[in-house]
Amino acid sequence: MRISRTPDDLRLQLAVLPRRRALVPTMGALHEGHLALIRRAREAAGPDGTVAVSIFVNPMQFDRPGDLAAYPKPLADDLAKCKAAGVDLVFAPEAGAMYFPDRSITVTESLLSTHLCGATRPGHFDGVCTVVLKLFNLFQADAAVFGEKDVQQLAILRRMVRDLDVPVEIIGHPTVREPDGLAMSSRNIRLTPEHRADAPRIRRALEGARSLLPFGERAAAPFIAAARKYLEDSPFLRIDYLELVDAETLQPVGHIKRPAVLATAVFYGDVRLIDHVTLLP
Questions:
Q1: pLDDT tens readout for residues 68-81
Q2: Which of 2, 5, 89, 134 could form a disulfide with 52 if both were Cys (CB 3.0 to 4.6 A apart)?
Q3: Domains of the chain (ranges plus CATH)?
Q4: pLDDT tens sequence across 229-274
């Protein structure tokens, strides 16, 4: 497995690696969810292609300095997991290698990012779009794999690729969960034992709300109310947002006429977790 720490070295490494090339962008602290993305990347690249993983805790996409400082960075463990998973190339730069001190260009999305995480994390998706476009430019990948847990991020990146004519296939992979239903996240390890025991209620709240569908409910308010009640029964969590939005435009809807997404973000202490369910009319 090759390891690169600078853009210039990355270009040299890529020059001798075969196509088809599939990229898995990550911020490290890899878990089984990331390994599932790597396996999907191998399917996309083929047995003779190149699977590449980027490990970069991107400071541009953090809206809270404390969250950035606390984000886990177990690089040696991450590299071992990548090697065991059959990754061909890992790009693990420092922030100084990715951004010039006087950088003045940012990629901004102006519609899909106006609700959900975009509304409560100012500048977050500017940071995501900017770093991912940089990675696409650096890797010249044929495909890139992202988890569907970050449903808004996935939609925004697909829009960015469409609108900017970026020649990369965006592949979504279903959310990987713990046995108790909690969506896998690098932040889960920061939960206290009490909070970790309570956190599966996020999924149960969303699934409980979705159970209204077979009874003919289509108005948005009852779905939101059902999920909110179950979440607010917890003595530990604080709701950051809970919204029902169109699955394509990510704009709030009052009635489910097309595929929709019921999405939430909650805080346990200073640990922020997200999840969602899809609602079909």
A1: 998 999 999 999 99
A2: 89
A3: 2-173 (3.40.50.620), 186-276 (3.30.1300.10)
A4: 999 999 999 999 999 999 999 999 999 999 999 999 999 999 999 9
- pLDDT for 263 equals 98
Q: CA nearest 42: which of 21, 69, 62, 27?
A: 21
Q: Write out the two tokens for 187.
A: 């932040």
Alpha helices in the chain (DSSP H): 7-15, 32-45, 65-70, 75-84, 95-98, 117-120, 124-139, 151-163, 193-198, 201-210, 220-232
What are the tokens at 255?
């009635």
pTM summary value: 0.96
Residue type, 54: S
Cβ pair 133, 160 in contact under 8 A: yes
Separation between Cα atoms, residue 53 and residue 90, nearest integer Å: 5
**What is the DSSP-derived secondary structure letter of residue 110?**
-
Tokens linked to 195 = 């909070």
Q: What is the mean pLDDT of residues 16-26?
A: 98
Nearest to 33 by CA among 175, 157, 190, 202: 175
Tell me which residues are annotated as active site.
34
